[in-house]
Amino acid sequence: MIDRKPFDSETYVETIQSSPCFICQLVADNSANPHHIIYENDEAIVFLNKYPVLYGYSLVAPKAHKEQVTGDFSQEEYLRLQALIYAVAEATRRYVQPERVYILSLGSQQGNRHVHWHVAPLPAGLPFDEQQLNALRFSNGVLDLSEAACQALTAGLRHELNQLGFC
Ligand SMILES: [Zn+2]
C-alpha cells in the first residue's frame, strides 16, 4: 500500500494557468521541471504523471504543440499516436496488472493546452464506487512515490514497452 499525500489544487491550477506549456518545456529541456521519461521518438513522448492518483499512471503526448484532440492531427498522425498509446497501455497492463486501464484525454484551453492522453491503471479490487472518475480525483491526494520508486516504475514500464517492440 503506497501512502498518499494531500494535493494542493489551488497552487496547481495557478501554476498551470500562469506557466509556459510544461510539455513543450519537457521536450525542449527536461532539467528545469524534470519528469521521468519512459519513452520518446521523433513524434511523441511518454512520461510518468507527476501527480499520480494511481500507481503506474503515465501521460502520452505529441512532441509538437497540438491542442485539439483530433483536429490538430491528420488521421494518419492520430492513428500513429494511438498505436503508441495502445502499447503504453499494454505495457502498463503487464507491469502493474491492474483490473483495467483507463485511457482519456482531458486538458483545457485555459491551462494544460498541449493535448495529451492519460494512461491510468485501476488497481484490482477497488469497490465499484471508488472506480471510474472517483479513482482519478485529486481530492483523494496523490501517491507519495519516492524518487527510487519512480525510477523503478519508469524502468519497468520501459522494459515492457521494449518487449512490445518500442525501444
Ligand atoms: Zn506545448
Please specify the SSE layout and strand pairing.
Elements: E1 4-5, H1 9-18, H2 22-28, E2 37-40, E3 44-48, E4 58-62, H3 75-96, E5 100-104, E6 117-122, E7 142-143, H4 147-163
Antiparallel strand pairs: 1-7, 2-3, 3-4, 4-6, 5-6
Helix pairs in contact: 3-4
The structure holds zinc ion (ZN).
Number of helices: 4
The small molecules bound here are:
zinc ion
**What structural class should be given to the helix and strand makeup?**
alpha+beta
Q: Total domains, how many? A: 1
Cα-to-Cα separation, first versus last residue: 31 Å
Q: Kindly report the average pLDDT value.
A: 96
Shape: globular
CATH class assignment: Alpha Beta
Rg from alpha-carbon coordinates: 15 Å
Strand order of the largest sheet: 2-3-4-6-5
Low-confidence stretches: none
Percent of residues in β-strands: 15-25%
The count of strands amounts to 7
Name the helicity range. Answer: 25-40%
Describe the protein in words:
There is one protein chain. This protein has 167 residues and is of the alpha+beta class. It has a single domain (19-163), classed as HIT-like (HIT family, subunit A), CATH 3.30.428. 34% of the residues lie in helices and 17% in strands. It has four helices and seven strands. The strands form two sheets. It has a five-stranded antiparallel β-sheet. The protein has a two-stranded antiparallel ribbon with strand order 1-7. Helix 3 (75-96) packs across helix 4 (147-163).
